[in-house]
Write a structure and sequence with these properties.
globular, 2 domains, alpha+beta, six-stranded antiparallel beta sheet, 466 residues, Hypothetical protein af1432, Beta-Lactamase, 22 helices, single chain, 6 strands
């Protein structure tokens, strides 16, 4: 039982005692008008008065998800011009919430629930590719906030909150009874009250409403939520099969393509979590090899062509370059038969390469531990020589005596390949593939270069069109 019982008691704790700063920042952001010139100034001031928030917002604004031209965004005013007021407003809101919940040493259950909300947001946004970018961001934010009540009570560290979540997850059919037992209030009532108190918007309010017919945007918010709740059971589970069918109908795509989209967005969630500086969520987000039971398939000989076609389809349909890059590492690993593949983004501000996109067994920890500080590179080592020459490189371990240096943490004594992604002759990312300790082939090097060249072409087209 809890010493805090009832709606008013919990609202007082959340608003006045445990989350007063978050409460004021979130309300200030949400109450900004979307079409008022003074709101632009007000948002700028909200961001600039917090140096950490300013740094986080600029980092996100410069990511491949928002800054498609890769032209550095160095000021908040420039960010508003380049990515738009609404996008920046939503980035600021999401960043503020995530940072507040993850400050200090958050308990494991809070990390797990925030990871589910984050994953739901990424899945939901992918279901409305035909909507403009601003509406996609509204869907993302609404899905992220869909369970704000649960996140808020868990962030207090109160024992009753954790006991309720654990018991409810074991017996979801008895949610109301358990909520009244542990909290003294219906969790849905608390959730809706918090959404109203913090002015979180009409879309998340509609998505949480169990009565009446939902709009398309509210429907996909709830579909994203369903994916995040059940994906840990595996893609073959009956509930996930149903969700796949619903996404297929919603997006007007085949069930097979809906299946692929869910898997791709599960990977995308980890990429975006790193972009938001939320590395602590990575272990709690779904891993492809854990949710998809791979059946040995007879090679057809045109696997790479299928993945290249997928990359082009994503590009044509207006998906982010991030989704294209995740598809590219799968093209290398599954299409070209390379054991492991990754793309590391160049961060000139902090002078490092940061692994974002991965594929292959044993690569899950690369996102957490794959950061390479460029100032620590030594002349003559593999990565240093590649960055100097900026030409596709095949390191044949049996012939090449170049020391692996900082790449030693990836290479297992076998061959590896490196390629650069460039905008205006400036490297923005490095593509990596290896044989996991094995020898690689001439054909694989040709296919590696093909994928890298396709990515470079898409990046340039994307930069010009934006």
């Amino acid at each position: 039982m809890s010493d805090i019982r009832g709606l008013q008691a919990w609202m007082r704790v959340l608003s006045d005692q445990d989350l007063p700063t978050l409460n004021s920042v979130v309300k200030a952001i949400c109450e900004l008008s979307d079409d008022n010139q003074s709101s632009t100034h007000d948002l700028t001031q909200i961001i600039l008065r917090d140096a950490d928030l300013t740094s986080r917002v600029l980092k996100i604004a410069n990511s491949v998800h928002y800054n498609r031209s890769f032209t550095p965004i160095k000021t908040i005013s420039r960010a508003i011009v380049q990515i738009g007021f609404i996008n920046l407003k939503n980035i600021t809101l999401a960043s503020s919430l995530i940072d507040s919940f993850l400050k200090g040493k958050p308990r494991e259950l809070l990390i797990q629930r925030l990871a589910k909300s984050f994953h739901a947001a990424v899945q939901a946004r992918a279901m409305v590719p035909y909507l403009n970018n601003e509406k996609q961001e509204q869907v993302f934010i609404a899905a992220l906030l869909r369970h704000i009540g649960e996140l808020a009570i868990l962030s207090t560290g109160r024992e009753a909150a954790e006991k309720f979540i654990v018991a409810r997850d074991l017996h979801p059919e008895n949610e109301l009874g358990l909520s009244m037992e542990y909290l003294g209030v219906d969790i849905h009532h608390l959730n809706k009250s918090l959404i109203r108190e913090w002015s979180l918007g009409e879309l998340v309010t509609e998505a949480c409403d169990r009565q009446g017919k939902h709009s398309l945007m509210a429907h996909v918010v709830n579909l994203g939520n369903e994916v995040s709740l059940h994906i840990h059971k595996g893609m073959q589970h009956a509930r996930m099969v149903q969700v796949c069918e619903q996404i297929s109908e919603q997006c007007e795509i085949s069930i097979e393509d809906a299946h692929k989209q869910i898997l791709l967005m599960a990977e995308e969630a980890s990429v975006i979590a790193k972009t938001y500086g939320a590395e602590s969520l990575l272990k709690a987000l779904p891993q492809r090899d854990a949710i998809e039971a791979k059946q040995p398939a007879q090679p057809t000989g045109y696997e790479l062509s299928q993945y290249l076609n997928q990359m082009h389809t994503l590009m044509i349909e207006g998906e982010s370059m991030s989704a294209v890059m995740q598809s590219a590492v799968l093209a290398l690993q599954e299409g070209a038969g390379m054991q492991r593949a990754a793309i590391a983004m160049m961060d000139y501000e902090s002078k490092c390469l940061d692994v974002r996109y991965i594929a292959g067994n044993g690569t899950n920890h690369w996102r957490e531990n794959g950061r390479i500080e460029l100032e620590r590179l030594h002349k003559g080592e593999l990565l240093h020589e590649f960055l100097r020459a900026q030409q596709p490189l095949w390191h044949e371990s049996a012939k090449d005596t170049t020391p692996p240096g900082m790449l030693r943490k990836f290479i297992q004594g076998g061959d590896c390949m490196l390629g650069g992604l460039k905008i205006n002759k400036r490297i923005v990312a490095v593509v990596y593939a290896d044989g996991a300790g094995k020898v690689m082939t001439e054909r694989q090097f040709e296919e590696f270069q093909l994928v890298v060249n396709q990515l470079n072409l898409m990046l340039r087209i994307n930069a010009v069109s934006n």
